[in-house]
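Hallway conversation turned thread

IA: we were arguing at lunch whether anyone had actually written out NAD kinase end to end. Turns out nobody had. So, for the record, here is the sequence (295 residues) and right after it the structure tokens. Reply here if something looks off.
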Amino acid sequence: MAKPFQRVLLVSKYRDPSVRPGLQSLRDFLLAQGLPTFLESECAADIGESLGLPLLSFAEAKADSDLVIALGGDGTLLGTARQTAQSGIPILGINQGRLGFLADLSIDQVSEALPPILEGHYQQDLRSVLLAELWRGQDCAYSGLAINEVLIHKGGGESMIELQVQIDDRFVYTQRADGLIIATPTGSTAYAMSAGGPILTPTLAALLLVPICPHTLTARPLVVADTVKIRARLTARRQPAALSLDSHCSVPLEIGDEIVIRRASCSARFIHPEEENFFQILRGKLHWAESPGED
């Protein structure tokens, strides 16, 4: 059994008033358990109230004693994970979104599933994080972390972009496509899966390159070790191109810009119920357990 948690920090999907009843329900349940409970500072500013809870920022939370509970969908968990990856604070997801590969529990399961987790009966899951840097000439114009994927894409235009891709300074290809996804195993069940990439188990030490609607039919997804450094240089575009990290930002790109992607030194730390496993999640989310219907 792991060490019980001593405090809980609640965070919810931003700019979504529908999460307030769920937050209130979580607050009431945790306080009834006698567990010190806080509301994340930016979350409180977003919903316009503290729900009667003391406020705590991510910077003030402690990795060895605190648990962050994120209420929302996978986007909420990804944003929370980017905030906490450097400090290693654990995150538990309560799903109030759509598919929810990362958010394990629904709000209806809290009363049954949450007490064992709070007492230390849980499994820990460390997920790899990507560091992406945008180099414009000799200057690093932008850098950031991604849990799911780094996406280089054509922005809002209709024309394809052209990228020259290198892995560990070895030329791989020049690709004309709508974009290129560089994903972690976590991200293999997100945009990369929609674009035709394979599903990677979360603990696999690998990165995934998936072209989006490539101009050639011979282009295929590529899985490489996560120790490599990937360079993608924008060599041609007719309309604006952009760089996105986990779909939470969009940075305009210029011809000659180079995006350097490698695994970051930190990891995202997720908490799951003891009995859960990745294949169970796949069966549930992708309906693998259902039998084909009869004609």
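OS: looked through it. The longest helix spans residues 20-32.
IA: good, adding that to the notes. The mean pLDDT is 91.
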